[in-house]
Amino acid sequence: MKRLTQMSLLVFLLIFGSTFGQQEKGIKGQNNWLHNWTDFKPNQQDYDSPTQILTGNITKDTKLSKRDIYLLVGNVFVTNNATLTIEPGTVILGDYASKASLTISKGATLIADGLETDPIVFTSNRSVKRAGDWGGVIILGDAPSNKFGNGSVATFYADLSSTAYTNTNYGGINSESNSGVIRYVRIEYAGKRIKNDDYFNGLLLAGVGNKTTIENIMISYSAGNSFEIWGGEINLYKLVSFRSNSNDYKFNYGAQCKLDNSLAVRSPYVSSSNGARCMQIMSYDRREEVDFSKKGTSVKANNLTFLNNSENLKADIEKGLVKEAVYVGENALLDMNKSVISGFNPAVLLQNKISVNQENLEKIKFENMYFNNCNGNIFVENNANNEDLENWYGNSAFFNVYAKSFNSETFIDLNNERRPDFRLRINKIIATNDLDPDLRID
Fold first, then answer.
1. Fewer CB atoms < 10 Å away: N or C end of the chain?
2. Which DSSP string do the residues of 168-192 spell out, in sequence order?
3. pLDDT given at position 24
4. What CATH topology corresponds to 49-382?
5. CA distances (Å), 349 to each of 103, 137, 229, in order?
6. Distance between CA 17 and CA 9 in Å, rounded?
7. How do 364-367 and 333-337 pair as beta strands?
8. Tens of pLDDT along 426-439?
């Protein structure tokens, strides 16, 4: 009996350990941490008319109360080292007509510390809401970037007075600067078009330091990038990007970031004309604008889930509606671990300026990954021959898994419109070592 009991315990530990290990891939948690504070149907929310207006500059400490609904009009700047505090449950409506935006200037602070049961909401003031209805939220800090001198976000604002330009600067030498707390916050229908193909972002963090708290933020239906990070050093935790027209997570200008336990859900029918990715990692847009003696962009990404929710993946790829999930530019570093990429074309694309050699591939790491139902895995841009890359990342030492499963088989409760669960459905996963799986159609 004793031997039987020991054997039963051993079997249990093996099963438990295996299940726990698998569940560590992608977003994780004993419970579904999306419950209560997220909203995957924001167009069904009906808020009361605004009772207060926010406009111009906020130059002294100010508190927004839950009992009021605020209308954000024009470009609102928090300046003069002031702190803007927003109570849990507060609703701020971005004005469509004036391309409203909220900017926390360098030295100022935002305390938007919502609750799981009472999140803070930024959304559109239109009755029928659309992506790009208003600007978005911008936070400017004094942490370093790799640009020459200090950077500026002045191009985001129309008709900006010369005296206001100082409020648009970011960057410095303080990696530990603190721009405040943004937690349990939703930003909906942001990303207003500025000109041509330029847009506001849902949330832009420029030169933000590592004492700033950025966690439990959901950005839905952004016409620009959901999360964009320029320089700075920041830890990002439990972020959600849902149906963005542009990139879900974009890192640039020497950003030093950790992105953990976060989600991006894309739709092939919601995207800009140029296409978009879940994650784009660049060190610059133009080489002449950056100082190569400074650090290039470096992102350490753990437990991410990137999902393209196609009803017919093969047909959507043939129509050109599906792109790669991850794009990495030259002189940028990526260390991606324990993450899920499901339903893309292909999973990863490296800029064509990156030479395929050991030195470069050691700077772009994919380990303990779960690549599911992608039309190819890792390629260099404009090069269909990825044999060297497949041999490198397919090495058993990296513990990458390749699968061809329906999304409905892969995730716990994908189709629950109100309370979806994007954690892996452990018992239904069908793994394979086939590096070039046939596409499955959900």
1. N
2. GEE--S-TT---EEEEEEEEES---
3. 84
4. Pectate Lyase C-like (2.160.20)
5. 33, 29, 20
6. 12
7. parallel
8. 644 444 444 444 45
